[in-house]
Amino acid sequence: MSFPPSRLLRLFGTLALLGFLALAARAAEAASPRPLTAILNAYPPEMEAMIKEFGLREGGFAEQRVKGFRYYLGRVEGQDVVVFETGMSLVNAAMALQLALERLPIQRVLFAGVAGGTDPSLQVGDVVIPEKWAYHCEAAYFNPAPDGKSWLPARYFKQRYPNFGMIFPDDMEAIRADREQFERTPFFPADPGLLEVARRAVAKMDPIRYGADARPVQVLVGGVGVTGTVFLDNREYRKFVHKTWGARCTDMESTAYAHVCFTNEIPFLAVRALSDLAGGQDEGALNAADDHEHGTSENAVTVLRAILRELPPAP
Predict the structure, then answer these.
(1) C-alpha to C-alpha distance for 68 and 50, rounded to whole angstroms
(2) Residues 231, 244 contacting (CB under 8 angstroms)
(3) Which residues contact 235 (CB under 8 A, 6 or more apart)?
(4) Residue numbers of the chain with a pLDDT score lower than 50
(5) Would you say the pTM of this structure is higher than 0.85?
(6) Is residue 144 part of a domain?
(7) Looking at the 3D structure of the chain, how many domains does it have?
(8) Residue 207: CATH number of its domain
């Protein structure tokens, strides 16, 4: 069968138009990618728990690398997610998250990992989801007074918290679009909506059992978490942070994540399972974090997955 030249021209024109529309649709999709839920962890045992739980290396996830950080993009529980290990401590945590926020369409940030327990009512394996976060190491260090009974704070310093010897805690200052200048910010909040989702998810979960005695662990939503640049393993300082901030747990990243999300106005939530008691173990006993970091990481990721299951799609 042959076609008249005019009909061939119309056919080629139609095919060209369809091809252009298909390319335009793909370009539009690339320019406006689907919003993502970021799922963070800080170090290898936490990342290994996510690899195992989410099947990050079993296909279905695409890997991107930015300045050495590995970002895994895929779907979990119906959510479009990006999963990545930030590295330990405040600078790594803030840098990795800010890099991701500037390059990917992240609409909310969730974390799952381990922490030291500072609430004496909690045990190793228990899981806490704090409603706000503070820096416990933002502080001034002062000389003792000549009498040996007091300290010599600098003139600028206004004491807002009890001191721990020479260590005088202070508040962080932060800024974002709705502030004209840096303002004192004692706490960085978890997102109220995500906290409510967490409460619903926890209420629906089967008990998590942990330890040689298969003890049902507590999963608690609310309270305070604190963050610093130290691995806390001191009985007296543990008591101090619990008394001063009412802290349920301490870690080395979460307040940095909450701070970055506060400035970027992105919802944030952290799930922390207790791998140790931050120095509160029996006198003479060594810190047990090495024995529990893998199992408690899995506890945290189990709770995080339940939260993802309860979440609506990212806005």
Answers:
(1) 19
(2) no
(3) 279, 280, 283
(4) 3, 8-9, 11-32
(5) yes
(6) no
(7) 1
(8) 3.40.50.1580
